[in-house]
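User: tokens in, sequence out, please.
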């Protein structure tokens, strides 16, 4: 499976070697040479996998992973830690930071690729384990892309379905139009922010007959949120 993978590594020769290996397997690669640069990129890009070096100038890879695991959206991205540290306690520390896998340098390319594929499969499998999402009487069937509200089926387009799915899995938090374009439509897709407004209008029209449209809240000057009243 092809995926978007971010390499966070300060040593250019290592980045180039890993990038070549990943691109050879038809993955898209985003590069960052520091934790700070990675965080800036992650504001508008959401990769399918992160490969993070432990030792970097400034914030270490371990601290970066800890920070990401506290973020509501970015915490879901699987992460592999790369390091020259070989002691068992170092491995434990890396995994306890939130990393999903740990690989020591020098990196064996075939093993690296196998571990990348394993993480991507595991991530994809985790996304399909839960077949439905439900809140406030709204139920999304992820297997057949059906929406039901209070037990009644409602017609919904693909974009509106994906938008509602994002909101229902990230409740009670405001997202700007730019963030929604990146997280729902994907980075690299160049659409006007007005696109979000159009689909929000359509989504509210779908939910209005069931008196659920009020759950989609416009926060003036900031963006939109899905209000799960039961958790407030």
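Assistant: Sequence out:
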């Amino acid at each position: 499976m092809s995926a978007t993978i971010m390499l966070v590594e300060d040593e250019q020769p290592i980045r180039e070697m890993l990038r070549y290996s990943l691109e050879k397997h038809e993955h898209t690669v985003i590069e960052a040479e520091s934790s700070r640069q990675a965080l800036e990129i992650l504001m508008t890009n959401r990769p399918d996998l992160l490969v993070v070096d432990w030792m970097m100038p400034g914030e270490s890879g371990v601290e970066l992973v800890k920070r990401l695991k506290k973020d509501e959206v970015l915490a879901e991205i699987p992460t592999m830690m790369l390091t020259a540290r070989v002691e068992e306690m170092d491995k434990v520390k890396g995994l306890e930071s939130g990393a999903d896998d740990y690989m020591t340098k020098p990196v064996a390319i075939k093993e690296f690729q196998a571990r990348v594929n394993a993480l991507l499969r595991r991530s994809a499998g985790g996304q399909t384990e839960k077949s439905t999402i439900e809140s406030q009487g709204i139920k999304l069937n992820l297997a057949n892309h059906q929406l039901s509200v209070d037990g009644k089926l409602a017609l919904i387009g693909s974009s509106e379905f994906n938008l509602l799915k994002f909101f229902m899995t990230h409740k009670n938090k405001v997202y700007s139009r730019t963030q929604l374009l990146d997280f729902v439509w994907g980075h690299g897709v160049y659409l006007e922010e007005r696109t979000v407004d159009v689909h929000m209008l359509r989504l509210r029209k779908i939910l209005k007959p069931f008196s659920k449209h009020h759950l989609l809240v416009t926060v003036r000057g900031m963006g939109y949120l899905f209000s799960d009243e039961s958790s407030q």
